[in-house]
Design goal:
The complex is a heterodimer of chains A (about 475) and B (about 450).
Chain A (H helix, E strand, L loop, with lengths): L16 H4 L9 H10 L7 H5 L6 H9 L3 H11 L3 H7 L6 H4 L11 H14 L14 E5 L3 H12 L3 E5 L8 H4 L8 H13 L3 E3 L10 H7 L2 E4 L19 E3 H10 L10 E5 L3 H13 L3 E6 L10 H9 L3 E4 L1 E7 L6 E12 L5 E5 L6 E4 L2 E4 L7 H8 L25 E3 L12 H20 L19
Parallel strand pairs in A: 1-2, 1-4, 2-3, 4-14, 5-13, 6-7, 6-13, 7-8
Antiparallel strand pairs in A: 9-10, 10-11, 10-12
Helix pairs in contact in A: 2-4, 4-5, 4-8, 5-8, 6-8, 9-17, 13-14, 14-15
Chain B lengths: L5 E3 L2 E3 L3 E3 L8 H9 L4 E8 L9 E6 L2 E8 L8 H14 L4 E7 L4 H12 L5 E5 L13 H4 L2 H14 L4 E4 L8 H9 L4 E4 L3 E3 L2 E2 L6 E2 L9 E4 L4 H12 L2 H6 L3 E4 L5 H9 L2 E6 L1 H6 L3 H16 L26 E6 L9 H9 L4 E5 H4 L6 E5 L9 H5 L6 E6 L8 H7 L6 H11 L5
Parallel strand pairs in B: 3-4, 3-16, 4-7, 7-8, 8-9, 9-10, 10-15, 15-16
Antiparallel strand pairs in B: 1-2, 5-6, 6-14, 11-14, 12-13, 17-20, 18-19
The complex binds flavin-adenine dinucleotide (FAD), flavin mononucleotide and iron/sulfur cluster.
């Protein structure tokens, strides 16, 4: 664990609202970056590089920072990962590159994520452009969704000379990077400038365009040589408990989205907030609520600390932010007269393991129901799948997995319809969903589309091993 | 991308980055691997007289956790059979016709031996020779290597022998273990050398073990001087390079120079080239990190050239040479003083102690309480009227751009020492010097 990660100022109450939503880690200064870069051992066949799902040549980009060839460093990163700026901020580096760094045994892995951000910030501040549209090869590809999977696929294809159009249902492109990552981890501008970079590479992006509504799937498949589906997942599902529709019960993703697109002082938040679910979304909602000014924020989770899906560093972060956790608690009803006044819960025990291997929570024998007083309930219990779109795709021969994700061949990310490819959260039937694996999915599909249509391997071949998520390793 | 190609006295190379004659250029396997990774040329590990090597050939110096800031060796020239070396050189040249393949040679001091090795080597198709007059250990005791390079007459004589038979360019590699590098350099040029390279390794003993009293490196209980190389020698190499590159006689001959000694990054390469090197050679850095470092050398140098608007390396080779001067020609009226930026100061006070103990006691530690706007911590303030502008404080300051040396108009006359002593030779006496200082407003306490 990177224990040398430290926030700059830490007395929240001394900070203004705006300051509390600034990027949590300050940028590295030139000297810090060069000193840190010089600490890197420049391992041969480095484990960090293997651990990175996009296989960025980490020792090389770090050595270039050490030699003050920061431009070359940025290019090295972007060659393997067009969304290097987002990834440097949102990646769970403790679980990936930094967790694999050989210096981890001294508890001081190289702070790879922050060095990457240093190089990416440099490229952005100098407005450096590294890639140009490839020589047109006459093939047309449609990309559905402009999250990291869609953007990465589109960008890689544009480099290879494809004519690429992206369709995005939202007003702005970028998927969850734009709408879902808490601002103090990634400002919206970082994601939008990545979108601009992809556009500069020749990719057309049609926002406010929903496939299945504004344009049909038939048309897309008909009018293109290949279609890449990167629609991610949808909103938070219903909990099917009484009181769920009371004003004051909100969808966690919408709550996060507000902080990305609205003025901070216009956002409504409760004074006593209860969040249901202890995944990373739950943690994000909790820390946002605290930073907005909520007095008491409690996360309730029906299993124990050990089964909690949030990353350890996220958990630590939330504890530091003053968030309370209540484990082995199941909500059974939202109570209140015309608005939320409390969450009725019951204590749970852990029974036999279920399909996911985690022990199944069961109502503790003789446990009585009790009410947690609160004025806001935030649901953060996962995301729905785009089942409507998936059934449309099924008409075109695209199959789904037993747990409802789009089924693909992981070597190519091709579905059972040879014209349709998919990647990102909508195919992540097992393992951890993350931005960086979505980026790799896009790259794999782009390489496979290139191979399939032109008959020649993609020149970016060396970076395209399938995603092995940390859970599967 | 910028054009990195060079033409080094007729030897063409896709870039200026060459392996120095040393372990990394020992075999066809290595040199071809290096070429595949981007190296533009290689000077083959020296071939020639028969040798036997010893164990524990290398000793290194680490500095505060940084490995190998210097490396010394008691290795000899190639101990592989000469036929094998020649066969492999021919193979490499066949496979890489556009890369520079240069063969370093060293034999006993006889005309027959030198001319024989040159003739045999030419049959390989190699692009040129490098005469190893620099090896400071083992070979020198046998009258070769630096034993040649330290005597300008010998350097000239052997170069002439070689030039009589060589049809390919000949580079003379100089030893730094000499008082005035210009003498052997001129001797080589008199002997009609096509080019010069420098530096070879520097005589050194790396250290002594405090428990066993053995030397480093330890060869079976004994040790002795070996050749020093690596990052620590770079400033010495830069000086020796600039000394010959700015020598009028060498300049008139127009021989190109290959710079060697302590190069590790593209930045080092640029510095050598700004001081007149057309190509650069690298050994220790490759021994430390492998051939792959060349990728950033190419990338870093091209990015830098693009930024500067340089199209080819010839746009900047030697660009700093006109600035090489001597003390007597420096401007005595140029004055700087240290300024500390209080907003950046982290109150380590390293500048204070350095100035107080080792310079001119012109930094005061003031308490912030007095003027109210600073924290209660003591903070360093320069008394500018007493600052002599030595720059020690700025050098020890650990914060970037916190202490800057600012040029001020001192009102002193802009005159050089040479002009002053010509116009007023009397200042060579202390009394008259005092008078002059009074008049020129130079106050040293
Ligand atoms: C709250 C939260 C926090 C997260 N934090 C992190 C983190 O810190 N680090 C990390 O690595 N990962 C994090 N993740 C996961 C990460 O954001 C996702 O794995 C990643 O964004 C998946 O990328 P994607 O391209 O598959 O989908 P998305 O980013 O979801 O993008 C899908 C896009 O498709 C569009 N779309 C959907 N349907 C249609 C349609 N019919 N027509 C047109 N467009 C459509 C959507 O509007 C969206 O823009 C987080 C996720 C959440 C929910
Ligand atoms: C182990 C070792 C062996 C060397 N052998 C030779 C040699 O055979 N011929 C030669 O001309 N120089 C030889 N050198 C000197 C190098 O070519 C080079 O001039 C010197 O190491 C300085 O460059 P560097 O600082 O990049 O290492 C050797 C150097 C080392 C470290
Ligand atoms: S594992 Fe750590 S030390 Fe090794 S190359 Fe990667 S960042 Fe550097």
């Amino acid at each position: 664990m990177a224990e040398h990660y430290k926030p700059v100022k830490y007395k929240q109450w001394e900070l203004t609202l705006e300051e509390r939503f600034q990027e949590y880690h300050p940028p590295l200064t030139d000297r810090e970056a060069v000193l840190e870069a010089n600490r890197c051992l420049y391992c041969h066949d480095a484990p960090c590089m293997v651990a990175c799902p996009t296989h960025i040549d980490i020792p090389t980009f770090i050595k270039k920072i050490a030699t003050e060839n920061t431009k070359g460093s940025a290019r090295t990163i972007l060659q393997a990962n067009l969304l290097g700026a987002t990834c440097s901020r949102v990646c769970p580096v403790e679980e990936l590159c930094e967790g694999a760094c050989v210096l981890e045994h001294e508890h001081k892995p190289i702070i790879i994520g922050r060095l990457q951000r240093y190089a990416m910030d440099y490229a952005a501040s100098k407005k450096l452009k590294f890639f140009h549209p490839g020589k047109p090869n006459g093939y047309k590809v449609a990309v559905v969704g402009t999250g990291p999977a869609g953007l990465s696929c589109a960008g890689e294809l544009a480099k290879l000379g494809f004519d690429v159009t992206c369709y995005e249902k939202k007003e702005m492109a970028g998927g969850l990077d734009t709408y879902g990552i808490v601002v103090f981890r990634e400002p919206v501008e970082v994601s939008l400038s990545e979108v601009r970079m992809i556009q500069d590479m020749g990719v057309k992006i049609k926002t406010n365009t929903t496939i299945g509504v504004d344009v049909t799937m038939e048309e897309l498949i008909e009018n293109n040589d290949a279609v890449f589906v990167g629609v991610g997942l949808g909103s938070v599902p219903d909990m099917s408990i009484p009181g769920e529709t009371l004003p004051g019960v909100v969808d966690g993703l919408e709550f996060i989205e507000e902080t990305k697109v609205r003025k901070l002082n216009e956002i409504t938040f409760g004074q006593r907030v209860v969040i249901i679910g202890a995944g990373n979304t739950g943690i994000d909602c909790a820390t946002i609520a605290r930073r907005l000014g909520s007095e008491r924020v409690t996360i309730v989770y029906r299993r124990s600390e050990a089964e909690m899906p949030a990353y350890h560093f996220e958990y630590q972060f939330a504890l530091g932010e003053g968030v309370t956790f209540m484990f082995m608690i199941q909500p059974v009803e939202v109570v209140g007269e015309g608005k939320v006044e409390g969450l009725k819960c019951v204590r749970m025990d852990l029974g036999e393991p279920d399909q996911s291997g985690r022990r199944r929570p069961v109502r503790a024998s003789g446990a009585e129901e009790f009410v947690l007083p609160c004025d806001m309930v935030i649901k953060a219990i996962g995301q729905k799948k785009h089942t409507e779109m998936f059934s449309k795709l099924a008409e075109h021969g695209v199959k789904t997995t037993s747990n409802g994700y789009i089924a693909v061949d992981f070597e190519t990310n091709r579905t059972d319809n040879p014209k349709v490819y998919a990647g990102g959260d909508c195919i992540r039937s097992k393992g951890e969903a993350s931005t960086v694996s979505a980026v790799q999915d896009g790259k794999i599909a782009a390489a496979a589309i290139h191979q399939q249509l032109t008959g020649t391997p993609s020149p970016n071949e060396k970076h395209i091993e399938p995603v092995l998520s940390p859970v599967m390793k | 991308m910028a054009n990195l190609e060079i033409d080094f006295c007729g030897i063409k190379s896709p870039n200026p980055f060459w392996l120095a004659s040393a372990p990394p250029s020992n075999s066809a396997y290595q040199v071809q691997k290096a070429f595949e990774q981007g190296w533009g040329g290689a000077v083959w590990k020296t071939i020639g007289a028969p040798v036997l090597n010893v164990c524990n050939r290398y000793g290194t110096i680490d500095y505060k956790g940084s490995k190998i800031i210097g490396l010394n060796n008691v290795e000899l020239i190639s101990d592989r059979p000469i036929e094998l070396n020649l066969r492999e050189i021919a193979e490499v040249k066949r496979n890489f016709p556009n890369h520079a393949v240069i063969v370093s040679v060293m034999v006993e001091s006889s005309k027959e031996a030198w001319q024989d090795i040159v003739r045999r080597t030419e049959e390989t198709g190699a692009d040129g020779f490098e005469l190893n007059f620099g090896c400071p250990h083992g070979m020198s005791e046998r009258g070769m290597g630096s034993a040649m390079g330290q005597v300008p007459e010998y350097t000239c004589m052997v170069t002439e022998w070689v030039m009589e038979v060589a049809t390919k360019p000949v580079i003379v590699k100089l030893t730094p273990n000499i008082t005035d590098i210009v003498q052997p350099a001129r001797a080589a040029v008199r002997g009609k050398a096509s080019a010069l390279s420098l530096i070879n390794t520097i005589n050194s003993i790396m250290g002594v073990d405090l428990d066993s009293f053995e030397l480093k490196p330890n060869v079976g209980g004994k040790g002795g001087h070996g050749g020093y190389a690596g990052p620590a020698v770079k400033p010495i190499a830069l000086h020796l390079l600039s000394a010959i590159a700015s020598d009028p006689e060498i300049q008139r001959s127009r021989v190109p120079i290959s710079g060697i000694g302590g190069i590790e990054t593209w930045r080092d390469c640029v510095e050598f080239m700004l001081l007149g090197a057309t190509s650069v050679q690298i050994c220790t850095a490759v021994m430390h990190w492998g051939f792959r470092i060349v990728e950033d050398m190419i990338d870093g140098m091209s990015n830098w050239m693009d930024d500067k608007g340089f199209k080819t390396v010839y746009d900047f080779i030697g660009a700093s040479l006109p600035r090489i001067s001597t003390f007597g020609d420096f401007d005595l009226g140029f004055q700087t003083v240290a300024r500390i930026n209080p907003d950046k100061c982290i109150h380590c006070n390293l500048c204070y102690i350095a100035c107080n103990d080792a310079a001119h006691q012109c930094i005061d530690l003031r308490s912030g309480k007095l003027n109210g706007d600073m924290s209660a911590m003591l903070h360093p303030v320069v008394r500018e009227q007493d600052c002599v502008g030595c720059a020690l404080c700025a050098s020890v300051c650990p914060v970037d751009d916190c202490i800057s040396m600012v040029e001020i108009d001192s009102g002193r006359p802009h005159i050089t020492w040479n002009d002053l002593t010509k116009k007023r030779p009397e200042v060579l006496n202390w009394d008259q010097m005092e008078e002059y200082r009074e008049e020129a407003k130079i106050h040293i306490h």
